[in-house]
Fold:
Amino acid sequence: QSENLDTTVLLLDLEKAYDKPDGVQRGLIAEIISRFEKKGFYLRGMKLMDVKKALGEQHYAEHEGKPFFPGLVKYICSGPVVAMVWEGPNVVASGRQMIGATKPHESAAGTIRGDYALTVGRNLIHGSDAVESAKKEIALWFPEGLSQWKSCQHPWIYE
Ligand code: IDP
Structure:
């Protein structure tokens, strides 16, 4: 059913407790998943995983050379993340809206970052910025493949 549907990768950064209040301590995993689930997007893949430096560097390769790059890679590798693939109509664009602006103080209230994050270096969640980058990120984070299934609610959400 999914030929015309975009997919996106979301990484819920669950930082260890040595820094700012984090996703694990604040219990935000279910809250964030539930926003995408309730919207009606399809969950195609999800796992809790530790991130090796090579994967962190590859994921953020476009930022290599920027002053915040080493800290960014250290951050993504500093504790487990929940990696998810969501699918649905315009999920990349919708997902970016639901996540909110990169800088939490510029994120609208009601977005994930607007509601739960304070600083740019601890902004809780990554979402692919384009369909093309989502495809690359899915290959990077889910080499084992994704799950295809159809919800019994499908006809009530999808025209
Ligand atoms: P995005 O995550 O909203 O797509 P990008 O510009 O792709 O934002 O940046 C990737 C990540 O790099 C951001 O989510 C943020 O965690 C981090 N980052 C971006 N700009 C800065 C900065 O100026 N200082 C510290 N970290 C930054």
The mean pLDDT is 85. The radius of gyration is 15 Å. The chain is about 35% helix and 15% strand. Helices lie at 29-39, 53-59, 69-76, 91-99, 112-116, 131-141, 154-157.
